[in-house]
Amino acid sequence: MVHLLIDKTTLLAIIIPIIAILLVAYVSYVDTIRFIQKDVVDEDRLLMDKIQANTLDVQNQQNSMVALDSRQAQAYVQTLTQTITITTLGAAVLTSVLVFVINRGLHKRHLAVQRSLQSEVEKRRAIADCQ
């Protein structure tokens, strides 16, 4: 067998660059991990910002829809109130007119019956006076 003898200087010349390479690899690994973590955090922040913006948009849309529904409900209530008021006033006027017409008809009939009875009374008095 062959014995290879390596002196200390040669051994140090081999070990120091290997250690330097390992150190550079470790630093590069740590920097890569930090970069990936920072990139993930930045992406997470962007995603959270987008989610918050979307949530705000949805809330704004819901608030707009609620306000629109409220305005429509108020308009419906106002229209319904006006319709009921107008219908009630119309019914009151119609009832008043009908009561007036009926009362006038009854009064005319009463006057006709009263005239008829008065003429009948006068006829009977005339007959009674003649006898």
Provide a quick synopsis of the model.
The protein is mainly α. 94% of the residues lie in helices and 0% in strands. The radius of gyration is 55 Å and the shape is rod-shaped.
Strand-pairing-aware structural class: mainly alpha
Q: Which series of helices and strands comes N to C?
A: H
Quaternary state of the chains: single chain
The description of the largest β-sheet is: none
Q: Supply the number of helical segments.
A: 1
Envelope shape: rod-shaped
Task: State which percent range the strand residues make up.
Answer: under 5%
What percent of the residues sit in helical stretches (DSSP H or I)?
A: over 70%
| Cα-to-Cα separation, first versus last residue | 186 Å
Computed Rg: 55 Å
**Mean pLDDT level:** 87
Spans where pLDDT lies below 50 across 5 or more residues = none
- Number of beta strands: 0
Structure keywords:
131 residues; mainly alpha; 0% strand; rod-shaped
Question: Topology of this protein?
Answer:
Layout: H1 8-130
Descriptive account of the structure:
- By secondary structure, the protein is mostly helical.
- The chain is 94% helix and 0% strand.
- The chain contains 1 helix and no strands.
- The protein has one helix spanning 8-130.
